[in-house]
Design goal:
Layout lengths: L7 E5 L2 H13 L3 E4 L3 H9 L5 E5 L7 H10 L8 E5 L4 H9 L4 E4 L3 H40 L8 H12 L10 E9 L5 E9 L2 E7 L15 E7 L7 H7 L10 E7 L2 E8 L5 H43 L8 H15 L4 H10 L12 H4 L7 H7 L2 H9 L6 H9 L20 H16 L10 H10 L11 H20 L2
The chain binds fe (ii) ion (2 copies).
One fe (ii) ion binds next to loops.
């Protein structure tokens, strides 16, 4: 038998016969379950795990043909074989049994024949179940890869979270799921660190993940020349692979290892252990595919992250180059990025946007590269003409950044970060929501930081002083300049501004 569990046979017989058959079936390694009515039979079928049904056609209180018909018309039960028993073989009953879909009609005193027929029908059912399980696994695999991809997020790709998702799919949630392992061990290799091992198990309907300590290092993952290895074993196999004995000897895994599939690679090891039945190569294929998907996504995430890092580096380099003309503003651009990210997060604008604004806000003054250093560094009051020149930097900045979609947020910021909610800003005097949200955010972030910094023409303000100016105004700066929602968000996260300023001082 493929399954480690006993096949279950549902008996709908007379009391005397039920007792006899219960004994016989138990002797042959089957589990017999007797019920006394058609309704009870259907109810027991609902509970699942019946491998064969024996029905007596001669019971006066039960229309066995009718019961067989309703079983065979039910999609969930129709694959369960039905043997009908009769005391006297009549042609009309034989035809009727065929019509209602029974697998056979046998004489009830032909025990040997019944047993042989029963064994054969159960063997066929096990093969059908196995095929269906394979099909289910194939479907599971194909949807799983799709699911992983749909949740794929370059910036927040967490290999461990993906492994958790794999294990959740793989592991047995309750005792009926014989086709799944009841225990999964996962080893993850982090660069320059050691292997980290976890044990996963369902306890009281909850997936428990326990970090394991040194013992699992017993299993040296792989020799240098072997990229991937998949091992399957069953307790009945002889000889068993070394890994079986390694696992048996583990003290942390307080469990008797019976069977399993082990996937070993240089970055991840997945051990699916103690399936409710023997394991087969298709179990190995399922596990291998899941591991390969996760490794593929990790490698893709690493590559995309490298590209993103190069992009971020270039953006910073451009912003720094533009600062060369200005007086030393230290980490001003970085802080403006951080403040903007804090506000965007508070305004629930989404993780992707938060990262975009964090990076691209550094470009807000990139247009100043076109403004004469003498004007930017001037300590005295600027003349009207000089002011006119300074006020061109948003347009210059937008021209430098251009219309590449990857820099759309930076473009909007550069062009609009001096616009004001009440329409008194520049260069276009936009008002309210016609100013892009990223610019409304950077406008406040930029002004907070400018107030905190000492510049040629002004001293540094404390956090409290800057907070007062932005929230209450000081004659030059007015609360009406800011998007009320952005200002509210600022009030709520002001403490974080103070912390961040100190961090990037
Ligand atoms: Fe500016
Ligand atoms: Fe600035």
């Amino acid at each position: 038998m493929a399954s480690l569990a006993k096949p279950q046979i549902l008996l709908v017989l007379s009391d005397r016969e039920a007792t006899l058959w219960e004994r016989t079936l138990n002797q042959h390694g089957y589990e017999a379950i007797s019920v006394t009515s058609g309704d009870a039979a259907l109810q027991r079928l609902e509970e699942g795990k019946i491998d064969l049904i024996m029905l007596d056609i001669a019971r006066p209180d039960l229309d066995s043909f009718e019961l067989c018909k309703s079983i065979k018309m039910n999609e969930r039960f129709q694959k369960i074989p039905v043997i009908m028993l009769t005391g006297e073989m009549k042609k009309k009953d034989r035809i009727k049994s065929i019509r209602v879909g029974a697998e056979d009609l046998l004489l009830k005193d032909e025990n040997e024949e019944i047993m042989e027929r029963l064994k054969m029908l159960i063997a066929v059912k096990v093969r059908i179940d196995r095929l269906q399980e394979s099909l289910r696994n194939i479907v599971l695999l194909s949807t799983f890869a799709g699911e992983l991809l749909s949740r794929f997020d370059t910036w927040y790709f967490e290999f461990e979270e993906n492994i958790d998702a794999i294990v959740q799919r793989l592991i047995r949630k309750n005792v009926d799921m014989l086709d799944q392992p009841s225990l999964v061990l996962v080893g993850i290799f982090e660069s320059s660190v050691q292997w980290r091992w976890y044990q996963y198990e369902y306890l009281f309907h909850e997936l428990i993940k326990i970090p394991l300590q040194q013992e699992l290092d017993l299993i040296k993952p792989l020799p240098e020349d072997l990229p991937v290895k998949v091992v399957i074993f069953n307790e009945v196999d002889s000889p068993k692979p070394k890994i079986f004995y390694d696992l048996q000897s583990l003290k942390t895994v307080n469990i008797h290892v019976k069977n399993g599939v082990c996937y070993l690679s240089k970055e991840i090891c997945l051990f699916a252990l103690n399936y409710g039945r023997n394991v087969y190569p298709h179990d190995a294929a399922v596990l291998e595919n899941m591991a390969v998907n996760a490794r593929f996504l990790r490698s893709l995430a690493c590559q995309i992250k490298e590209t993103e890092n190069a992009f971020a580096y270039t953006v910073h380099a451009l912003a720094r180059a533009a600062e060369a003309n200005d007086e030393d503003t230290g980490n001003h651009i970085v802080r403006v990025g951080e403040f903007s990210a804090i506000l965007a997060e508070r305004l629930l604008l989404g993780r992707k946007f938060v990262e975009q604004i964090r990076l691209q806000a550094v470009l807000h003054d990139v247009g100043k590269v076109y403004i004469a250093p003498a004007i930017l560094r001037k300590r005295e009051k600027l003349s009207a003409e000089e002011w006119l020149e300074v006020r061109k930097h948003p347009v210059y900045g937008a021209n430098i950044i251009g219309d590449h979609p990857r820099l759309r947020v930076g473009y909007n910021i550069a062009l609009n970060h001096h616009e004001r909610w009440d329409g008194t800003g520049y260069p276009r005097g936009l008002r309210g929501e016609s100013i892009p949200i990223e610019a409304r955010i950077v406008n406040l972030a930029d002004q907070y930081d400018a107030l905190r910094m000492a510049r040629g023409h002004k001293p540094a303000y404390s956090h409290e002083e800057a907070y007062e100016v932005l929230t209450k105004g000081d004659g030059r700066t007015l609360p009406g300049h800011f998007d009320p929602q952005v200002l509210t968000a600022f009030r709520e996260v002001a403490a974080l501004f103070a912390e961040t300023y100190e961090k990037w001082r």
